Amino acid sequence: MIRITILGNNSALPAFGRHPSSQVVALEEQLFLVDCGEATQIQMQRFNIRRRRINYIFISHLHGDHYFGLMGLITSMGLMGRTAPLHIFGPAALKLIIDLQLEAAATVLPYPLLFTALEPDQSQSLIHEPHYTVLSFPVEHRIPCHGFSFTLKHPERKILPDKCRAYEIPTAFFNRLKKGEDYTRKDGELVKNEWVTQAGPPDKKYVYCADTRTTARILPYIADADGIYHESTYLDDNREKAYQRFHSTALQAATTAAAAGVKRLFLGHFSSKYQDLRVFYEEASSVFPDVEVTVEGTTYEL
Q1: Which residues contact 13 (CB under 8 A, 6 or more apart)?
Q2: What are the DSSP calls for 111-178, one per residue?
Q3: In the chain, N or C terminus with fewer CB closer than 10 Å?
Q4: Which residue in 75, 71, 70, 62 sits closest to 37, CA to CA?
């Protein structure tokens, strides 16, 4: 199961109790912080997100509403005695910003800070573990900007206990069956793996599309995803403004979700000109059936 907890879903300015962009993606027990706008730490405390469990931070781009909370979080982790490495993925210039602020304050972190630069206009495999992967991909924004795709993998097959008993397979061999191995009985009979197991649950994919104009370039990265978070800064009567500012409307986000065949659409990055967000649901749901207008503090499950 993938869980997404929204810490901030507003664009640019805090408004109407909404905060700049930030969310936590949980793949099993691993927590990933995606963007870190102003007040992210406060929101983490408010919604019981444990900072020490975050080992990976992804910053989509260098507009302040997506990273102005980062330095506070980095230094707080140090003050709290963190020793585990912290991995940060973001634009190359972010490393210069972090180093400059640490140097200016004569701050030495008590933990390793490992930085990976995102290459402009390129997709990158960032993390590749047996049970999950994370990759970045370019979107269309005013400055270099990336989305992030999280895949929770289920490579192991599911044991069918009754079948295993019928073929007299010892439980000590079950872990090897889960990995797809056949079993040879003492009498020499070969028991095919597919006779005593079945495919495990399908992989789950969640995609954070970041700040972007509506563009077909992201379709290969979000295709058939179980859920995507797509910005909807404006309603469609401001389509021209959205285009000029390299943003999207709720209707455009929904049209993109429909074209990609995704299962659920999460809307966010709302302009501070809007107080009532119900109309975002009405607009998007007119073309896509499963829409969530995200609410801060809510955890969504895939």
Answers
A1: 20, 65, 272
A2: S-EEEEEEPTT--EEEEE-SSEEEEEEE---SS--EEEEEEE---SPEE-HHHHHHTT--GGGHHHHH
A3: N
A4: 70
Number of H helices, E strands in the chain: 10, 18
C-alpha span between 227 and 263 (Å, rounded): 6
Would you name the residues annotated as active-site residues? 65
Looking at residue 21, its pLDDT comes to 98
Q: What angle do CA 245, 6, 219 make, to 5 degrees?
A: 50
Distance CA 94, CA 298 (A): 29
CA atoms within a 13 Å half-sphere pointing along the CA-CB vector of 165:
3
Bridge partners of 267, per DSSP, are 230, 293
Among 136, 23, 112, which residue's Cα sits nearest to residue 69? 23
- Are 137 and 14 in contact, with CB atoms under 8 Å apart? no
Tell the residue number behind the tokens 């179980």, with chain if given.
226
Q: Give the 3-state secondary structure of residue 190.
A: strand
**Count of CB atoms situated within 10 Å of the CB of 165:** 11
For residues 73 and 39, give the distance between their C-alpha atoms in angstroms, rounded to a whole number: 10
Does position 35 have pLDDT exceeding 90, yes or no? yes
Q: How far is the C-alpha of 155 from the C-alpha of 201, rounded, in Å? A: 9
Q: Which amino acid, 122?
A: Q
Single-letter amino acid code for the residue at 81: G
Query: Residue type for 14, please?
Result: P
Q: Are 109 and 84 in contact (CB under 8 A)?
A: no
pLDDT of residue 28: 81
Distance CA 102, CA 109 (A): 8
